[in-house]
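Why run this: before we spend reagent on co-expression, it is cheaper to look at a predicted model of the complex and decide which construct boundaries make sense. The entries below are exactly what would go into the expression plan.
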Amino acid sequence: MALNEEPSPVANLGTGPEDATGVASDVAGQPALPATRPSDEMTSPIFVPNTLWQAADPSAYDGGRPTDITHLREYAATGEAARDDARWGGALEVIPTKADYVLDLIRMNSLWPLLSGLACCAIEMMSTATSKNDMDRWGMFPFRASPRQADVLIVAGTLTTKMAGPLVRLWEQMPEPKWCVAMGDCTCSGGRYKRSYSTVEGIDRVMPVDVYVPGCPPRPEGLIYGMMKLQQLIKDHRGSWPERPVGPTVPQEV
Amino acid sequence: MTTTSGPSDDPRVTLDRDLGVFEPVPPYPPRTEREAEFYTLGDGQMFINMGPQHPSTHGVLRVVLKLDGEKVVDLDPVLGYLHRGVEKLCENADYHQVISQVDPLEYVSSLFCEWSPVMAFEKLMDIEVPRRAEYIRVLSSELNRIASHALFLGWMALDLGGLTPILWSFIERDEIVDMLSSLTGARMLFNYFRIGGVNGDLNHEFMSRLGDWMSRATEQIEAGNDLLNENEIFVRRMRGLGTIDSKTALRMVMTGPNLRATGVPFDVRRAHPYSVFPELEFDIPTRSEGDCLARYLLRMDEIKQSLRIIDQCLHQMPDGPVMAKLPRLLRPRPGRAYAAVEGPRGQLSTYAVSDGTDQPFRMRIHDPSFIHLQSVGVMMPGHLIADTMAIMASLDPIMGGVDK
Amino acid sequence: MDRRFKARLEARFGDQLTGPIRQRHDETEMRIAPGDVVAVMRALHDEPELRFEFLSDLAGVDTGQVMQVVYHLWSDVTPDWLRVIADGLSRDDPRVPSVTFLWKGAEWMEREAYDMFGITFEGNRDLRRIYMPPDYQSFPLRKDFYLADDAARSPGAGVRPMERSQVPSNAPAAALVRRTPA
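The model came back. Tokens follow.
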């Protein structure tokens, strides 16, 4: 290489706002903006607490809000409702048994999704379910229309503030054990609609998410990879899904 | 006289809270005449809420049905469950960024959603698109139209209960969409059209896959048609359903196959020609019955015409650049432009207002699915609940476009 | 561009036009006052030499100073699109007569213009919000409704901390709002 390697000049990053260069605005009539780094002037962030979704028992999946749906509120207060009542153990349930392992295998191999296709990702979800990329190979073909019969909620498509209520109600109506897959950029973090006035920036603001599948839309192979990750999750956690992290996973300063 | 759904009458079941959200009647007094008229129940009538999540695949649409037994007397669609604020986001974005923002409007036919604003911006800026780019645009968008109509076929049958046609049509659609992905890079939200042309030229992989598919296409489509066209259950359920006559269709401002099925031969490609359609030979299929079966058969005819157009595009494809020479920062002079394309659902048009800056001042997108959902209120009364989904499927709405 | 059509329109609607008829590419544009909407639309729709029976689009536009309602029509007598702009609606209380008496399909388009701008269409039997929830208070597409990202132009200087730091503190509020004629 015969290039003259000139020593790069030491970049003068300046020390603070008074040292900043102005960035000329390319819109006529607008003043030039100072090119400061955002971290130099960080004001206190606005953190919107997640009020839509909380639970009472901290060991339950949604620790914070009392269950008010049925007359089983008293039963929920005893703390027994938070336990996975598909366990066989009784007093021995702290010791994981082979029965638990088999139950996890059963659950992971016949995950029945709920039909909750909201937007474009729903088409790719349907494409994953049909002949060319067949989700039936892993037992996931029956898309149940009723949340009472579904195991996994694959949220495919942008969640708007108007739809957030019905979607959370669908999630609450699903019986435990249940899992949630955020499919597509809009459900992971808001995606291309992040700055919009009517979308929820990521469904993890309103419900716990187990697997995030990014993409716009994710290819069917991507969704299959996400579902296989979910199967791995079920197998590894051995049914102890109440202990997974919940709540917004977006960093506070953004 | 409405009867509210309070707690159950069985004393063993106690509900802590009245599940008010399941009531279809809104909790505030009616604000408009139509709302008052709709939410007043006659004798023996009741409301049923087809909520935003339902097994039909069109998306998040909520319809409140007023029923007399099993017959639908009236209905009130509630939209907005997918309103993403695309028009406002476009106002804050660059002219080029609009293309990717506008893709997910009618996500199964996103090339048309891109074409319409791109044409409007080209009119604003007086840009001339090279002929090869125009031919590529027509070629790829007609492929997209076939994919969209194949999907319509599958959904139509799925909403009537048939599970096989949707599998077949997704095979069809996967092939076409994989072809388009070798051309554009994406399977669904293509982001392929640019202001002044298209993103990349045709490549060898696309052409070989296209040639291979074209040689098989006709038999595949015939096979799909044979599955359903002579099926007695399908035909008997769809014939005479959701009939609309041409005068009402024009009053409801319908376009596209829904209008052509009533007898009005209005196609934007012929009525107001754009791009290179004046040089292409194709017919406009029209039917006159105006029922669901007519709309279905019309779309199957349109697939055949699209194949004709693709064939001509391949034979007449000129050489040349695929993109006009443009500055990187586009700043048109202040003005207004309107452009309409014929999408698979109807006329998709854009009204763009420019104020001289590098961002569009107003980008109004007119979507056909939005208009056609209004006519559901005209077509549905008198039919049964089971026909509700058939009628809505035959109009082929896509909620991304309805809600923007 | 149909020059004879422009002459015909000027001859027919001369005194109702509030501005010159402009033509560009394949569009012809005329501006009228909001009060004349009913008469002009009925004439365009019913008269046998005009026959504009196809309403292609109904849009609301907020120019920053006034609001407009823009109708696009198509007829087989001319190869041009006809754009009718009802100009001069005030931004505080925009009212315009509804065209649902001619095209029932305009009902939802007017509902959308009401939802996004607050334009009241007098005569529309069903003027309620269509996209936003019924208890929503603002009108999103107005120019004084700022997205969180529009920080440089918002007097509120953005919602998120990343945008706040970019706004010069000495910029007058008037310079930040984009007001343009259109």
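The CA atoms of residues 5 and 78 of chain C lie 7 Å apart. The first strand of chain C starts at residue 22 and ends at 24. Bring this page to Monday's planning discussion.
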